[in-house]
């Protein structure tokens, strides 16, 4: 008997054991399957992918119209993103690996195709990334960028990137050895809605940067919590709602609570909404 000749209830039982997204989508492409199986793919809201590039993902992204969180690893060479718009994606986490200084990362261009994206965590293993300066992303509020060792990103490129996110509230920059006090001073003017700035493992940042932040807030009537290097640990006491607990599944669809302070490798596999 051919698989297409199996009863629907039998097919449903079989596909309950298919847990790998690629296998499920390939089955969908290969032959007719029950609408319930198609719905199983299209209703996916969170994906944690370890062996899948953005190029691989974009080929099947149209099967995932309800995706709200994507965790993925990408490797050079990375290509210009021309896949479908992800209308519902709210959280994006990516590890970009590269061994050549000429490699370009297009993850931020991918984010331009996520109109309601609110939070992003990028482990950046390249010194070059594409920035479309003609597009502003109004929804992004939380951003963590960890620069792989050795970090080589140019400040002007980083500045052009951050100018795309005028409503950013929480920013974490880690292992950015090229970042200095004057750059922190410029950041305050670039990001008018910033309330939390963490610049950890940034060797060129000194106490002068903290003075810049305090003086700026006093003169402009703003409140910005700044943490860098020696006082970085204080963020856990001042923001107790931000978890550092290592867990595969976290309760609550909350990037700031479950992701912001953690190392990339400790990010949870799934964020379970409290109403579930």
From TrEMBL:
Gene3D superfamilies: Ribonuclease Inhibitor (3.80.10.10). SUPFAM superfamilies: RNI-like (SSF52047). This is F-box domain-containing protein. It comes from Tetranychus urticae.
């Amino acid at each position: 008997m051919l698989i297409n000749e199996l009863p629907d209830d039998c097919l449903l039982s079989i596909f309950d054991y298919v847990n790998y997204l690629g296998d499920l989508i390939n089955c969908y492409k290969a032959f007719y399957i029950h609408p319930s199986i198609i719905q199983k793919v299209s209703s996916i809201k969170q994906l944690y992918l370890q062996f899948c590039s953005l190029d691989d993902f974009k080929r099947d992204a149209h099967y995932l119209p309800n995706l709200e969180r994507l965790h993925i690893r990408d490797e050079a060479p990375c290509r210009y993103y021309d896949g479908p718009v992800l209308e519902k994606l709210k959280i994006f986490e990516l590890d970009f690996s590269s061994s050549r200084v000429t490699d370009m990362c297009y993850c931020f261009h991918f984010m331009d195709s996520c109109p309601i994206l609110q939070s992003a965590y990028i482990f950046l293993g390249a010194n070059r990334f594409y920035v479309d300066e003609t597009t502003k992303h109004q929804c992004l509020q939380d951003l963590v960028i960890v620069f792989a060792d050795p970090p080589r990103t140019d400040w002007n490129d980083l500045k052009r990137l951050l100018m795309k996110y005028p409503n950013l509230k929480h920013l974490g920059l880690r292992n950015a050895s090229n970042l200095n006090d004057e750059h922190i001073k410029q950041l305050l003017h670039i990001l008018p809605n910033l309330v939390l700035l963490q610049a950890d493992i940034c060797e060129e940042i000194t106490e002068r940067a903290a003075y810049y932040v305090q003086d700026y807030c006093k003169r402009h009537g703003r409140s910005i919590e700044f943490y860098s290097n020696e006082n970085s640990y204080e963020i856990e006491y001042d923001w107790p709602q931000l978890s550092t607990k290592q867990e595969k599944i976290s309760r609550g669809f909350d990037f700031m609570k479950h992701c912001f302070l953690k190392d990339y490798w400790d990010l949870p596999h799934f964020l379970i909404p409290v109403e579930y």
